[in-house]
Amino acid sequence: MSYLHAPRLVFTGDFLSDVSTVNNDTAHYNNATFQPNFQDPGKGATNGWWNPEGGAVFDFQNCAVKQIFLPDGTTQTSQSDDIIIGQAVVGAEGRPTGKMVDLDPDAQMFSALWCVQLRICTANGDLLFKGDITTTSFRDLQMRQLDGGKSNGQPLGASWTSVITNIEWGVLAEQSAFLKTLRATTQNNTLAINMNPFGYYYSHNDGRFSLGRIIGSIGPYFENEPLTFAAARRLYGINYTPSIRGTFFSISNFLVEPDAKRVSVDFGASFPVADSIGTVNYKQDLRLAVSKIPQAGVASRQTPTFYINPNDFIEIGALDYQSDPNWLNETGGIVSFNNLPDATVSALAANQLILVSPSTSQPGQFAIIAREAIDGLVARADNFIQRLDDGQSVNIDFYAYQWGNLLPNTSISVTLDPATPDTPVGPQNPISEIYGNNFPADGLTFNGQISTNQQGKAQMLLTGNAIYSPRVYIDGQIYFITYQTATVDQAFGTEQIVVHLRDYFEEIANPVWGDISEMMIQYSNLYPIMSKYVVNLADPVALAEKKKILIFAFSRDINDTMHMPVTRDLSSTKRNTILNWLNNPQIAPKTVVRSDAREARTANPAAPGTALTDKQTRYREAVKAKNGSFPGFSATNDLFENL
To answer: I need a surface site. Which of 8, 241, 351, 391 has the fewest CB within 10 A?
Structure first.
């Protein structure tokens, strides 16, 4: 992933994320205990949180190209230098916008962009280029705002890293020397993109509800690189800040180019900001340097700061950011130091990059704000977020690097995290029992020990197996899988693969309403915008009347912008069953006759997953008590038949 390579451009502005929040709360998935006020805005589990009528929309707002960086190390910031500077960065035209969707209520820190198109156009709408951003999820969440998100409510930021494909170059692209160079440099007519969202508004303050700030960088893509993270070296913040009980400058990508004698560091995702729009009032004297001796340790309350003697590092240069409060928005936070001395370039080849600041409490010493991992090791999984059906397999790609170079013959341990406990109904959670994650353990099959090949890449086959509603009223289960190399730096820690494994379900060729009612009622509960403004998903008559448009939405490919976003939570067999009903609506309360396979499984209590668990039985009885009968297959388990 080469967004830090030249030529690159930086854009900044706002993003719109109109996410739905009724479905943020796990307990709201329980049809038996769902209350109408769960669709009302407000704070807490007794309502629909801050945006219950969200439509999952993602779009660019007020974004523009701020600067370009050229292969010779020069930066241009005026449209007189290149036509692309100052032009608008916008979303799709003539089609629905992209979508932003959480993986699951139990995995909300991995929000993904789906079907987002990016265009750069003039004020008159003339196209420079456009392309589709491949689906990608949050990585590297970290503290951004010094004010703790006082006005907007969300002090964290994150990164989306991906590639732009299906690129179309406009006629005006020929007038941009930058775009011609970028087009000649990149490979496969694909571009690399990194976006850092922060300052998102939960609150209705400042006229910015559902808006956030975004910093984007676009550069060349090179073959055989990962798609969802930068093939770069990384800085890790270790300077403990008591006021936030954590660190700033937590994670920053950087690129060392020996031939160009250059180092470029991306602080766009990590530089601390004074407010939600990226104002910088940080006043520390920050300097980049190369440590001559290995630096270890992680700051904590007990040891908040580590120090280094100036004789033990080679200074690269100071970050020139203090003169302009709008520095981050104008530069994207990327700093490049060119024409480095040969000794510095040689030192960077096998020594840690560090971010330091002169100490006021330890005269003559420098505080270490951030540092590279010991031995310069980075190991990351590429396609780290997965949605799987039972019987479905996928190869997870891993890459290992040392000092920015691919590292062969490196062992990576992969481990399923322990099961988390259920939360019983009680004073802290009066609505519904909430079920844990990472069980049953046999839901996933994978090799726990893999090794990179001569190219520094490894693959692990991950297979989803049949599970039978371990979370009872929520489809499927969330699994967190931790991986790490043999050498673990505490500053780097471990990373995870996160899987939503969907429940086992046999497709029903000729379903009646009773076979899909629980699914559709749950959608009606969780996504009120559909029922209020399009069609009541809980009403079979209304669905039948709007079946054509629903068939269109449900039948789209999962990566199609017209695909109904929420049905990414369902297995293909459940989606197909809904489609089968829409193609032949049968409004009946009873279930279809079981297939032989379901009969065999029910007749053989020893078969895996056959018997109803206590959890499932309690849920079944609760639904019966509320509805007067139990309607065939539930939204989450095909074993909830009319037994």
So the answer is: 391
Render pLDDT for 326-379 as a digit per residue (tens, 0 to 9). 999 999 999 999 999 999 999 999 999 999 999 988 999 999 999 999 899 999
CA pair distance 634, 569, nearest whole angstrom: 15
β strands within 390-454, DSSP E? 393-402, 405-406, 411-416, 444-445, 449-451
Buried b (16+ CB within 10 A) or exposed e, 220-251: bbbeebbbbbbbbbbbbbbbbbeeeeebbbbb
Which of 26-40, 242-256, 340-354 is predicted least confidently?
Answer: 242-256
Residue 551, burial from CB neighbour count under 10 angstroms (0-12, 13-18, 19+) = middle
User: What type of residue is 437?
Assistant: N
Alpha-carbon distance 232 to 235, whole Å? Answer: 10
Quick one: average pLDDT of 504-509?
A: 96
CB 366 within 8 A of CB 357: yes
Residue 151 CB neighbour total at 10 angstroms: 16
Please report which helix (H) or strand (E) contains residue 79, including its range.
none
pLDDT category at 65 given cuts 50, 70, 90 is: very high
Pairing status of strand 136-137 against strand 112-114: antiparallel
